[in-house]
Amino acid sequence: MISDYRCFFCFARTFERLLEKEGLTREEKNIFTRKMVELYDNECDNFSAPVLSRELHIILNQMTKEEDSYSEIKKKSNDHIISLYPELKQRIQNSVDPFNTALRLAIAGNIMDYAISENFNVEATIKTALITDFAIDHSHELQQALLNADSVLYLGDNAGEIVFDKLFIEQINHPDIYFAVRGAAISNDATLDDGKYVGIDVVANLISNGYDAPSTIIDKCSDEFKEVFNKADVIISKGQGNLEGLLPLNDNRIFFLTMAKCDVIADFLKVPKNSSVIFNSALLIN
Questions:
Q1: Domain residue ranges of the chain, discontinuous segments joined by +
Q2: CATH class for the region spanning 71-285
Q3: What's the pLDDT score for residue 119?
Q4: Distance between CA 116 and CA 11 in Å, rounded?
Q5: Where are the alpha helices (DSSP H) in 132-222?
Q6: pLDDT digits (tens, 9 = 90+) for 220-275
Q7: Which residue, 234, 282, 240, is CA-closest to 265?
Q8: CA atoms in the 13 A half-sphere facing the CB of 105
Q9: How far apart are CA 201 and CA 196, in angstroms?
C-alpha cells in the first residue's frame, strides 16, 4: 500500500475545512471526528487513502444531506481553466514539441486538488511545468505506445484539471479514445456532468467508471467500464488517487501522470515533492 499514517492527518485538515464550511454544530463535528478515528483505527493495518476518503465523504453527506459538497468549487475550477483554454491551445500549437507541451500542461493541471490543499496557483504551476524536467520521464515511451494503440483509455481526476486533459487529448488525436470520470460526486473529482460541461465528450468517448471513490478501484467499477479497461492498449492514469488504486495491478499498459503533491507520494516514488512524473511501472522496474 502507498498510504501511511500521514494520510490520516491530511484527511483531518481537509475535513476540518469541510466541517467549518458546512456549518455543522459542535456536537456534529465531534460525532464526525469520532467516526473518522474509528474508521482509520479499523483499517490502519491495511490503509487505503481513496477508500477512507470515500467512506468519510459518505458520512459527511449523510450529515449535511448534500450529494456534492464541492459542486461550487468544481464549477469555479472548470470555468477558470475554460477561460484559459484559448491561450493554452495557442501555446501548444506554437510550441516546438506540441505533444510534450500538452503533456506538461496536463500534468500541471493535477495541482487542482482541493482534497489536499486550497492554496495553489494554477498559473504559476503552468509556468514551472513548461520549463522543469520531469522527475521520472517516460514521455517518449507513451508517445510511441499511443501511435501503436488501437484503443486508448484516459482516466480523469479533478474538475478544472480535465480541461488540461482535453487539450492533451486533442493533441493525441486518437480515433478511439475513452475518457473515464467518477461514478458519482466525491471530493472535487470530475463526474459525467463536469466532463460534458467542459466538452470532453466532443474529443473522446466520455464514460463513468461506475464507482464513487476518488480513485479507480477495478473490482468496484461497472461492467461497462471494465470492458473498456480490458480492451484498451494504452491506459493514461491521471492523479495520485488513480495511482494508488492501479499501481498494485502491475499493468504494463498503464502510464501514470501526476504531480507528487504530498510527502507520501513523493517518498514512495523517490522524487522531490511537487515534481511532475510520467511513468510506466514496467519501465520503472527495468
A1: 5-64, 71-285
A2: alpha beta
A3: 66
A4: 8
A5: 139-148, 161-172, 192-198, 200-203
A6: 999 999 999 999 999 999 999 999 999 999 999 999 999 999 999 999 999 999 99
A7: 240
A8: 29
A9: 6
Q: Report which of 125, 51, 110 is spatially closest to residue 261, judged by C-alpha positions.
A: 110
Crossing angle for the helix pair 98-108 and 161-172, to the nearest 10 degrees: 160
Selection from 230, 138, 239, 233 nearest residue 181 by Cα: 239
Query: For residue 181, what are the contacts with CB-CB under 8 A and spacing of at least 6?
Result: 156, 162, 189, 190, 191, 192, 194, 195, 206, 207, 208, 209
The amino acid occupying position 6 is R
Query: What number of residues does the chain have?
Result: 286
Summarize pLDDT for 121-156 with one digit per residue, the tens.
888 888 888 899 999 999 999 999 999 999 999 999
Q: How far apart are CA 113 and CA 161, in angstroms?
A: 9
Strands 254-259 and 276-279: antiparallel
- Report residue 63 as a C-alpha cell: 450529515
For 188, phi and psi rounded to 5 degrees? Answer: -100, 25
Whole-model pTM: value is 0.94
181 in Cβ contact with 189 (< 8 Å):
yes
Give helix 98-108 / helix 122-131 axis angle, nearest 10°: 140
**Edge-first strand listing for the sheet containing 276-279:** 136-137, 276-279, 254-259, 234-238, 152-155, 177-181, 205-208
What residue type is 237 in one-letter code?
S
Decide if 191 contacts 182 (C-beta within 8 A): yes
Q: How far is CA 188 from CA 156, 160, 164, 284, in A?
A: 12, 9, 15, 30
